[in-house]
Amino acid sequence: MARRNGRVVKYKKKRNINVGIVIFAIIFIYMVSYIIMYISRDKITIYEVVYGKNAESSNKTYTALLLRDETVYTSPNSGYLNLFVREGEKTSVGKTVFSIDESGRIKDLLATAADSENTLSKEDLNNIKNKIVSYSTGFDNVNFSSVYDFKGDIEASVMELINLNTIANIDDILGGNASSNIFKIVEADKSGIVSYIIDGYEDKTVENISYSLFDKASYSKISHKSSELIEQGTKIYKVVNSEAWNLVFELSEEDVEKYAGKDSITIKFMQDGLTTEGEFTIKTIDGKSYGVVTLEQYMVKYLSDRFADIQIIDEKIVEGLKIPKTAVVEMEFFLVPIEYATAGGNSKDTGFLLEVYDENGNITTKFVTPEIYHVTDTDYYVSKEIFEAGNILLKPDSTDTYVISSVASLKGVYNINNGYCIFREINIKGETSEYYIVESGTTYGLLVYDHIVMDSSKVSEDQIVYQ
Fold first, then answer.
1. Structural domain ending residue among the three candidates 313, 333, 363
2. Is 18 among the domain residues?
3. What is the pTM for the complete model shown?
């Protein structure tokens, strides 16, 4: 039997294309390309328009150190103290300010004389009442410790008023004790405003302050009252020699840059809302920058304070729509006199009659309605997309013509409520460091809750924006 041929013949397999894999590959490539394009393209941030005001600087509060020209006076002897000048009252040279009674017997004589007066005068009672009303109006639950200071101030004021009622007859009250060595009367050697609050800051000036002086936690003050037993050399009172005084407060680097070059600023006292203007300078002390406001009035109003919270009022506070400065763009438009505007056919849209040439080269007119972005008493601001410089417009019901040539610019933002960029004008009323405050409800402007492009440099007019 013949042997079979052992050769094996290989047949090429027919390749079948898997349509599913091809479709998946196409979709995969598309998705990868889209992701790469999305990651690499500029991100367009959307901003929703809200109401705001230019109160940025007014919202920033500074703690100011109050410095006055003050002279402190001490007790010449030890003994019982009697005060004869009211806190915040102006004294003159030779006027009795306080007395020292070494034995205590004089104190009893004064007390007996005070009792004989029965009551304070109506004027005195009104003074006490005004102090109580003023304190209750500005009372802060957080700063409850001020109650004790207030209590001491009232007690001191009452004693001072009682002593003032007796001092006019002091010679009759004291009799032979008036010239006694155990009783010492201290008279003012200069005129000025008297204060019995001593805190150790009396010798501080703008030139010799330090950062530690602004630490309110370590600040303390004392105030002596009538009938109190004091030692020789005790600081009893001080005289403020001038109505001029300084408010010193620390400035940040941004503040220094913002207020450099100003020679006056307006400040607001937070405790009572008083607003006033003063001379302004910037001082560098121990490597830190400080603002110094010099005032010529209201010193007595804050005589009992060493610190005050203030705000700087840069300008009149205005309210409106709050727009990021990065959103603002400036665009150029053609100016068209308003008398050339008309309405075409049944349309109520404002348009213009434009001279054009037909296919035969004949002059004819065409009604066009360009986008209008602003209007004044004399002109419309119209888009440059339809018109070109040199185009001729016809005046309705007239043979007058106008050659388009004049241009002007407007500031505005890109509104994207409809999914694409539309320029909307803005009328700026005020500003902060990052925002403009613009007028609301203008004919060609913005409304609250409109959506605009945060950074106008990343888009252009009519560009589609996906939100």
1. 313
2. no
3. 0.53
Identify the three-state secondary structure at position 158.
helix
Angle at 294 between CA 292 and CA 297, to 5 degrees: 150
Q: Hey, what are 180's tokens?
A: 């006694």
Query: Are residues 303 and 375 located together in one domain of the fold?
Result: no
Q: Given pLDDT bands bounded at 50, 70 and 90, which one contains residue 280?
A: very high
Q: What is the DSSP letter of 3?
A: P
pLDDT digits (tens, 9 = 90+) for 230-276: 999 999 999 999 999 999 999 999 889 888 888 999 999 988 888 89
CA distances from 174 to 43, 185, 250 (A): 89, 12, 53
In angstroms, the CA 312 to CA 58 distance is: 6
Residue 207, helix vs strand vs coil? coil
8 Å CB contact between 216 and 45: no
Q: Of 313, 336, 358, which residue is a domain's last?
A: 313
Q: Cβ-count burial of 334 within 10 angstroms (0-12 exposed, 13-18 middle, 19+ buried)?
A: buried
> CA 318 → CA 34, 104, 132, 312, 455, distances in Å?
46, 63, 36, 15, 24
The two tokens of residue 348 are 């109520």
Asked if 77 and 172 sit in the same domain, the reply is yes
Range of the domain at 418: 322-458
Q: Which two tokens stand for residue 222?
A: 């004392």
